[in-house]
Amino acid sequence: MSTRLWPRRLLTAFYWFVAFTFFMGFVTKYWPGPTFFGPAYAAKFVEWGYPSWFRFVVGTIEGVCAVLLVIPRRRFKFIGATALILVLTAATTTHIIAGSELYERVAAPTNLVIMFIFALINWPADWRDLLRQERLPSVSQRA
């Protein structure tokens, strides 16, 4: 096996691991009762000063971004990481101001740094690349 393939596979595995953690965030935010992270997110969001329904907004963003992070196209990874940067900036601020548990005050900024790195790795050469449709090869090119 080529030695150049290992770093790419490790990075792919890391994307999948991080996406899994955000997918778990999606699931637990929709979960109606207590989670393995503690009390129900409906109660946590109210404690943090947000309406309880706001957990669905955050959970949906986390779920969509988890999917975007594992799609093998750089622009999708960039969009997912950038959206999560916005959510994690708010989460970091919330956990610091609310005096949340230590693991929450550490996890949010750590994930924020990881998303900055993901965004930088997948930074488009031209912002218009995010909007361009990929063209399928024509029939003559496929043959």
TrEMBL record:
A GO CC term attached to the entry: membrane
Coiled-coil stretches noted in the UniProt entry, renumbered to this chain: none
Pfam families: DoxX_2
Cellular location(s): Membrane
InterPro entries cross-referenced by the UniProt entry: DoxX
Annotated TM spans: 12-32, 52-71, 78-100, 106-125
Keywords carried by this UniProt record: Membrane, Transmembrane, Transmembrane helix
Protein topology in the membrane: Multi-pass membrane protein
Protein name in UniProt: DoxX family protein
